[in-house]
Amino acid sequence: MGRQKQKHVVKETNHKKTRLIEIEIDNPFTFTESVKTADANELHSWVTHFYRGTVLDEEFLVFDIYHHSHIKSYNFEFVIDVRISDKPVHVIGAHFQHRKTCMSCPPFLRWADFINPENNYIVDGKAKFQIYIADRPKKYPKIPNAVHYPGDRTVELSVGKMKFYVNDKLLAFTSKYFERELERGTLNEEDPFVIDDVNVPDFQLFLDLVYNPKQYFTGYQAKDILELAQRFESVEIMQSCQNVLLEDLNENKLSTKEKIKLTEQYDLEVVRELFNPDKMPRPKCRPRFMKPEVPLTDDELLRVHQVCDLHRAGRERRPSCSEPLPLPPIPISPPSSPSISPPPSINSLSPFALPRMEDEVIVLGDTDDEEEEEEEEEVTEEEAEEEDFDCSMPSTSSYYG
To answer: Where is the composition biased (Pro residues) (predicted)?
Structure first.
């Protein structure tokens, strides 16, 4: 007799463990932001960030959560339940892997709804936030035909057979293309916005990055997402894709054959120059909805678009060793820093410096000591050079080193 066949049952490979992070705000009406680290040990740590942000002209309460892992091979799923005064706000499925500092899609609600006394989010002048983090069992979920993103879902995007329910203001905030569509009235609750000529998985990852700009993705995905970011004019996602591509090259994750393919699409020297950390537009790690310290200038936007044009130019024309691919002019120094000019000559000094220098150099009296005269001339030239040197000028030696 053979062994009796048993029906295969999917077993949970990990046990459920729920973590609770609590944050209490004493005066919610003047609240700006709150950061808390929890459950920190030698393997991982959690960081939560509540803050008051602005999307277009409306204020929202935004929540980000970061997971820092020190495990070499880490791939896990979590379910994050966010509540305010024990009232459910959002439930999010988050994916963390490969030591990357990722965060979940930030749930947000309107600030007017948060302080509205009818919603009972504020009790006795205080607001208590509860974040429940549970391990999600590793199963193969059925692919849904509709994706509901967190927060207010005010518009339906129809891509093939998939439906994406998103926030129109958030789309307009991160994409110039959708901002124009919102102004035209085509993004509304009544009629779905149809996009037919895009790949569904790529577009879903694009929307994931709209909601979660720090989500982990690979260099292979970045090449496809970069095309969508260019089409929908999303500068923030362009920067993320370019950073991932450069990181893959620096960490030698790509094979020689794959690097050759990238070389046909990008001028790597220009990319390295543009992605120097000192020249990156908005180099500081800042949550999206918080006001930037320094706004992104038109020149910085132009620089990002020029780098992205390398991808399009590489497809239209394959460069050879003897004939390099022509590139648009790219500014080297950041627009925010002062422009570097050649040092002024002696004739261009202030009128107050010339008479004093002449008095020190030209000896009116009769003297036979020529050595003392030469020493006075050397000291005067050193003083003139010190007057010409501007300490506020940034050094350019690192740009070409």
So the answer is: 325-345
255-270 b/e (C-beta count within 10 Å ≥ 16 → b): eeeeeeebeebbbeeb
**Is residue 127 assigned to a domain?**
yes
At 370, is the pLDDT very low, low, confident or very high (cuts 50, 70, 90)? low
Residue 344: other Cβ atoms inside 10 A: 12
H or E segment and range at residue 359: helix 353-361
How many CA atoms lie less than 13 Å away from 225 in the CB half-sphere? 30
Residue 158 lies in a domain: no
Nearest to 129 by CA among 203, 63, 205: 63
Which of 282, 314, 332 terminates a domain? The answer is: 332
Residue 21 forms beta bridges with which residues? 131
For 255-273, what is each residue's pLDDT tens digit? Answer: 667 656 655 555 555 445 4
Here the tokens at position 79 are 């379910």
The enclosing H or E element of 355 equals helix 353-361
User: 206: left (phi > 0), else alpha (psi -120 to 50), else beta?
Assistant: alpha
Q: Residue 53: which domain range?
A: 18-141
Mean of pLDDT over the chain: 66
Residue 377 has a pLDDT of 53
Domain boundary among 284, 307, 332: 332
CATH number at residue 32: 2.60.210.10
Over the stretch 306-329, which tens digit does the pLDDT of each residue have? 555 554 554 444 444 444 444 444
pLDDT 10s digits, 124-141: 889 998 888 887 665 545
Beta bridge partners of 61: 52, 109
Q: In sequence order, what are the beta bridge partners of 50?
A: 34, 63
Residues 211 and 92 in one domain: no
SS3 content of the chain, % helix, strand, coil (to 5): 35, 20, 45
216 part of a folded domain: yes
How far is Cα 212 from Cα 227, in angstroms, rounded to an integer? 18
Are 205 and 277 in a shared domain?
yes
Instruction: Render pLDDT for 342-360 as a digit per residue (tens, 0 to 9).
Output: 444 444 444 444 444 444 4
Whether residue 40 is contained in a domain is answered as yes
pLDDT of residue 76: 66
The number of residues making up the chain comes to: 401
Number of structural domains the chain divides into: 2
> Which backbone phi and psi does 151 adopt, to 5 degrees?
85, -165
Tokens 């705000």 belong to 25
